[in-house]
Amino acid sequence: MFDKRPDLKLTGLAYVDGQPLVCAECEGGFSLQVYKRGFREVWPAFVSCLSCGHGDDHQVVTNGLVDAALAARTGRRTAEDRDTFTAEWRGIVMTGELVPEFVLDDAVAAAKVLHEQVSTDAKAWWGAKKKQGKAQVKAATETATGAAKKKAGDAVSAAKATALTTAWTLQTGGAGPAAMPKPRRSRCTVKGCRAGMVTISSKVHSATGKTRDVKIPCGVCHRRAT
Question: What is the average per-residue pLDDT within 131-148?
């Protein structure tokens, strides 16, 4: 491989007399470099393939054809320009495009693209921030509105309760609900039953064996038990 820079750095397909210029090894033609060898125009140029690394002397592409291509190249002045050539040497025509070399307008175009991208990103960032701020304001507003509605609802409920209390006071004179009368307990039908205790005269219940009055719980009304 040569130490010097290639004379022609091709991009895309180049054509020699209408036939595509390709690598003799891999038949690829999209990344070829051409080197002049020696000082005579009729000597073959060396064609190297960046894809597979193969290179050899070309029988059609000569030093003179390479010089003609260099003389015919359009060059680049703006970022949109392409560096193309159409060269003819001793009846052999070669066309192609060279890898673009850097020009000042490339830096301007790159700066413009970067500026547009930064502007787009900044707009997106500020848009997201505005949406976030709106969402926070909306949430705070809803919270405050909910609290105000709850407070107003509590006030209305208190007012209703006060109004009802006032109306009741005016109608009843402030009296509360009437106490429910306790149901009267029916009298026990057992003779001698008083408050659930029955008095009987008995010797059986006497500790001395003499007849005496003894009070025992009534087995009918059971008042003593309640």
Answer: 78
Residue 173: the pLDDT is: 59
pLDDT, average across residues 161-165 = 71
Cα angle, residue 64 at apex, residues 43 and 80 outer, rounded to 5°: 135
- Are residues 42 and 63 in contact, defined by beta-carbon separation less than 8 angstroms? yes
Whether 134 has a pLDDT exceeding 60, the answer reads: yes
Residues in the chain: 226
Q: Which structure tokens are listed for 42?
A: 């009729």
pTM passes above 0.70: no
For residue 100, give both structure tokens. 């673009």
Q: Which two tokens stand for residue 172?
A: 């009843």
The answer to whether 49 touches 25, Cβ cutoff 8 Å, is: yes
What residue spans of 173-226 are helical by DSSP H?
Answer: none
CA distance 212 to 205: 8
